[in-house]
Design goal:
- The complex is a heterodimer.
- Chain A is an alpha/beta fold.
- In chain A, strand 1 and strand 2 form a beta hairpin.
- Chain B contains 20 helices and 24 strands.
- The two termini of chain B are 50 Å apart.
- The chains are: A alpha/beta, B alpha+beta.
- At the A-B interface, helix 3, helix 6, helix 13 and helix 14 of A face helix 20 of B.
Chain lengths: 441, 616
């Protein structure tokens, strides 16, 4: 049997102690397997039943479980899906997986395979699938909320609504073209529709504009720590990493750099990256480090610029920059006045750390409240939508233009919106025409 | 039994049949056209007009491929009008009212000019198919026609059933009998049929109409011919008249709608949504206060009037009562009542791009049998089916047109990938690349293709080459003439722009008037107007045409990704059962064709990618 046709299973809950754990099965054998393991009839579609689960070879009881059944195609994957709700111990989970792996046609699922099957079986469009991917990867609450809005179809709904509006206008123009000579169609597009299109263009532009913010929510805010060598960057990083308000997430030390820390600041993901001190390089190795530091600085959403001497503080006009006077404990009030715009911080006494975190949290959060009901999670989506907005704008500003050109603009705009969800087709336009017009020979 | 033979046998002498026979004979196959009555060849069974929106494009394309419809209507046309004049050049559709008798005569004359064509009278009664191949056809005169390639164009004759009011009887068309034996024979070969309905209005006696009280509608002062070969329209031009239904008419129809066969339950099949009967119009759009009726003359010497827009199958006495409530028709008399007709059609999804049956080699279907409505749709299919039957007989490669090349391509692709739920009619909105597919450039698009398949006569070829030469000359004039902003009559901007641009470049500015630009180059006056117009349109659409060309390019890429014909769809990993069933039934020949199937998912297309055969 091919891998793709096998029944797959995987724990749907995290691998740790908990009251309940869920094991999910999807595929043609899932109903047979559950019948074999429980020796009882499979519950009805969307029904939950209590069952005793045994290892069919030894007949040993594994657990008292709840069994939840979704029959194809009305399930997440579009296949027969069974959820086994078991007691949340690691031992039970392991035993259950071992037993399932021995059943014919069953194997452990690949990462994301349930969603992949849902996509292949047409249970989900691409936009939603991308959303699920983001949801699984979501580390913080805001990320999760954003991802959910894509999955739950809010974005999809909005795109469909827009596309319907465009198709509606297109249908009216097409009716005028294909039937206007035979039947009296009446005014082509009314004022209300025109202003609805205007409002739609504004919404589209807004969605495109705030998409980078949404992108930042999704991947987390990148904060670079920069400054000359020995200006206290690493010490500050360590202090920040240990603060209770800034919970260090378990993801530290991913491939980007050894010197990075993941924080959760009021629900917003922040990646803090230490960089090499910037100065005239003395060795090749140092040169590479400095180049990398400069690159990180360029890509950062915020830059904490450290300086350990008040009179050496140089102010840049980069609005991403947060100037910090480090080793503040070494300087008197008088001396600090020179660098009044910098936040005095001491990793030794802890001075200024709270203030820094507050400022960081505020800056990270900036602009994130600019939301759009439409969340675009890739550059492809962003480009496609701004293309549609441009075409609609041309349409609106050339209202007395030739109908065939006007229709082409709408067709291309609807196509662009369609690429984000589905496809456009001529029959659809004709259906739209006949839903609302009397058309005759 | 007498045995006869031909390379290609065309059954049916309607608009599909004559184009099929002509195309086959032009290519040089020995061709026989078998029809119930030779005297009805070229008959216009419904309205006396050719062309219109989308349909005018089809006629120009048929003409560009050497077909006969355009030349016949130019000879028989008594009112020429380009529809959608103000709505953009791409959606303008040339149309002409025909003198019915002159049209049929012109068709017969054009057919008579084909040396390889023989016309025979007789009704085909049975097809003989052996091992999935057609071998020949029996007729009702005890003859057996041996032919390896047969084009079937049965129109509404297959089990035709006419309904008027509460009565119904078997007929192929008013005055002709239905082909019931042929339908049975085809059925026994495994062909499956659906049922469709169409209708026609009553014909009126023009001498009983008060035209003087009605609004006149004239054709264009300068007739736009349907054929590229026509230089001048010779027939006298006459007006049509316009009148409207009213409240009394609507009430009368509404009160008696139970007597109409579609409402009494007598007719179950679906009709043409795009040309509804008056019963349908009043039932479905109760808010409309009136509907237009065009009173179209059927001929210069014929007093019959065709009331376009009031197709009905109510009982004849009621038809008269309804008509007499209409302005100008108070004393009208009916010469032939309107009726509805139900007939058999084949699900066109069982056809290939050449209109050959997938299951029966050598058997081609064209026209209403494939679920279409309209003379032009029928003729377009006839041309493609006839050409391919002949090419096959001669062992030559197939002639197919893509959606991006022609309305004919759109028509056939829609039929074979989507099938029909109601009689299919062409519209400009069906052609996604319609900015490139204009009535004006049909010759540039298609005549070279026609030449390479042997469809074009030497005469037409010379005329085409001459036109091409004129195009080139006009183009170099437009490219060579320079003008400033002020020169082309545009108001100066706040910052004066003294730059000179070529006239071609200026034409792509949306606010430039085409006539103004053309007037700047006096040499253009020596060139045929239609050619200058066409170039101007081309230049003014340039930005959109470029974008479309890109889109077409990527679509054609998908088209060139061929899928093996013996692909075992159900073995494809991850393909859902539904997609598997769809592909197994439709056997798409390329990734492009697969992606146009209704209901297909992007995921399924992604899964097909690995099976693509890279063509050499």
């Amino acid at each position: 049997m091919s891998r793709q046709r096998m029944t797959i299973f995987a724990p749907a809950t995290a691998d740790s102690m908990s009251a309940i754990g869920i094991m999910r099965l999807s595929g043609p054998n899932s109903l047979d397997v559950i019948e074999l393991l429980t020796t009882k009839a499979v519950p009805e579609h969307r029904y939950f039943a209590q069952r005793r689960l045994r290892d069919p070879t030894s007949n040993d009881v594994i657990d008292e479980v709840g069994v939840f059944v979704f029959r194809a195609p009305q399930s997440y994957t579009g296949e027969d899906v069974v959820e086994i709700h078991h007691h949340g111990s690691t031992a039970i989970r392991r035993e259950l997986m071992a037993v399932l792996a021995k059943q014919s046609g069953c194997r452990v699922a690949d990462p994301g395979e349930f969603t992949k099957r849902a996509l292949l079986n047409g249970r989900m469009d691409l936009l939603a699938a991308e959303g699920v991917q983001a949801l699984i990867a979501a580390e913080t609450k805001i990320q999760a909320r954003q991802a959910i809005s894509a999955v739950s179809g809010e974005s999809d709904f909005l795109l469909r609504t827009w596309r319907k509006l465009v198709l509606g206008v297109l249908a009216r123009l097409e009716a005028e073209i294909d039937f206007g000579e035979d039947e009296e169609i009446g005014s082509v597009v009314d004022a209300e529709t025109i202003s609805a299109v205007d409002a739609m263009i504004v919404e589209m532009r807004h969605a495109v504009e705030v998409a980078p913010m949404a992108e930042r929510v999704r991947r987390g805010t990148l904060v670079a720590l920069t400054g000359p060598p020995n200006s206290g960057k690493s010490s500050l990083l360590n202090v920040l990493a240990k603060r209770e308000v800034a919970i260090v997430s378990g993801e530290a030390g991913t491939t980007r750099d050894a010197l990075e820390v993941h924080l959760d600041l009021n629900g917003m993901a922040v990646t803090l990256v230490d960089t090499a001190g910037i100065r005239e390089p003395v060795s090749t190795v140092e040169k590479i480090g400095i180049e990398r530091a400069l690159q990180i600085r360029r890509n950062a959403d915020l830059v904490l610029e450290l300086c350990d001497r008040p009179n050496a503080l140089s102010l840049t006009d980069d609005d991403r920059s947060v100037p910090i006077l480090s080793k503040a404990d070494l300087w008197s009030k008088e001396q600090r006045k020179v660098a009044a715009r910098a936040i005095p911080v001491s990793s030794v006494t802890g001075e200024g750390i709270d203030q820094l975190l507050a400022i960081l949290s505020e800056r990270v959060g900036q602009g994130l409240d600019r939301k759009s009901a439409l969340s675009l999670t890739s550059e492809r989506q962003r480009e496609t939508l701004s293309e549609a907005a441009k075409l609609l704008d041309e349409f609106q500003s050339d209202f007395d233009g030739l109908l065939d050109i006007q229709c082409e603009r709408l067709r291309l705009a609807a196509n662009a919106l369609g690429r984000l969800t589905g496809r456009i087709d001529a029959e659809e336009i004709l259906d739209e025409i006949f839903a609302s017009f009397c058309v005759g020979k | 039994m007498k045995t006869m033979s031909a390379d290609v046998l065309v059954i049916g002498g309607g608009h599909a049949g004559v184009e099929a026979a002509s195309a086959s004979a032009r290519i040089g196959a020995s061709t026989v056209l078998l029809t119930q009555r030779v005297s009805t060849i070229g008959t216009m069974s419904c309205n006396p007009a050719i062309g219109g929106l989308g349909r005018g494009h089809l006629v120009r394309e048929i003409d560009a491929l050497g077909g006969i419809m355009g030349m016949a209507i130019d000879e028989a046309g008594i009112q020429f009008r380009v529809l959608n004049r103000r709505k953009g050049p791409a959606v303008q559709g040339p149309r002409a009212q025909a003198d019915r008798a002159l049209y049929a005569k012109a068709v017969r004359q054009l057919l008579a000019g084909h040396q390889r064509l023989r016309i025979a009278e007789g009704e085909a009664t049975e097809v003989r198919i052996e091992r999935g191949k057609i071998c020949g056809v029996f007729d009702d005169r005890n003859r057996y026609w041996i032919a390896k390639n047969v084009v079937l164009t049965t129109g509404t004759f297959l089990r035709g059933m006419i309904h008027i009011g509460t009565t119904s009887y078997s007929a192929g068309r008013d005055g002709d009998h239905a082909s019931t034996r042929l339908a049975r024979s085809l059925e026994s070969c495994g062909l499956r049929f659906g049922r469709l309905k169409t209708g026609t209005p009553p014909r009126l006696d023009g001498r009983t109409i008060a035209f003087e009280r009605l609004e006149e509608q004239f054709g264009d002062a300068e007739p736009f011919p349907l054929s590229f070969l026509t230089e001048r329209i010779e027939q006298a031009q006459v007006p049509c008249h316009r009148t409207y239904t009213n409240d009394t008419v609507h009430t009368l129809v509404r009160e008696n709608i139970h007597l109409a066969p579609s409402y009494s339950g007598q007719i179950q099949s679906s009709g043409v949504r795009y040309c509804p009967s008056i019963e349908d119009k009043i039932d479905r759009f109760p808010d409309r206060e009136r509907h237009q009726i065009f009173l179209e003359p059927e001929g210069l010497r014929d007093r019959t009037i065709y009331p376009n827009g009031i197709s009905t199958a109510l009982p004849p006495p009621l038809q008269l009562k309804v008509l007499r409530e209409i302005d100008g028709l108070e004393d009208v008399s009916i010469t032939q009542p309107g009726y509805a007709i139900e007939y058999d059609h084949v699900d066109p999804r069982c056809l290939t791009q050449t209109l050959e049956l997938k299951a029966t080699e050598g058997l081609f279907l064209a026209g209403q049998i494939n679920g279409t409505t309209g003379y032009e749709e029928a003729a377009a299919q006839g041309l493609v089916a006839g050409a391919n039957a002949a090419l096959k007989a001669k062992g030559l490669g197939a002639f197919t047109l893509h959606r991006s090349e022609a309305y004919i391509g759109v028509l056939i692709d829609d039929l074979i990938t989507r099938g029909v739920r109601e009689p299919y009619r062409m519209f400009t909105s069906r052609a996604e690349y319609r900015l490139s597919l204009r009535a004006g450039n049909a010759d540039l698009r298609l005549t070279p293709r026609g030449i390479s398949f042997g469809l074009i006569s030497l005469n037409r070829r010379r005329a085409f080459e001459k036109r091409c030469g004129e195009y080139a000359r006009a183009k170099s004039i437009l490219d060579g003439y320079m003008a400033t902003r002020a020169g082309v009559g545009l108001p100066e901007k706040s910052k004066p722009d003294g730059r000179s641009r070529s006239l071609t470049e200026w034409l792509s500015h949306s606010d430039v008037k085409i006539d103004k630009v053309v007037a700047l180059a006096p040499e253009l006056s020596g060139i045929t107007t239609s050619i200058v117009d066409e170039l101007a349109v081309e230049a003014s659409y340039a930005p959109y045409l470029r974008q479309q060309a890109e889109e077409i390019g990527s679509v054609l890429d998908d088209e060139s990704l061929k899928l093996p014909s013996d692909l075992r769809w159900c073995k494809i990993d991850g393909l859902s059962n539904e997609m598997c069933a769809l592909f197994t039934e439709m056997k798409p020949q390329s990734l492009g064709a697969a992606s146009r199937l209704p209901g297909v998912t992007p995921a399924a297309i992604a899964l097909l990618h690995p099976y693509v055969q890279r063509s050499a």
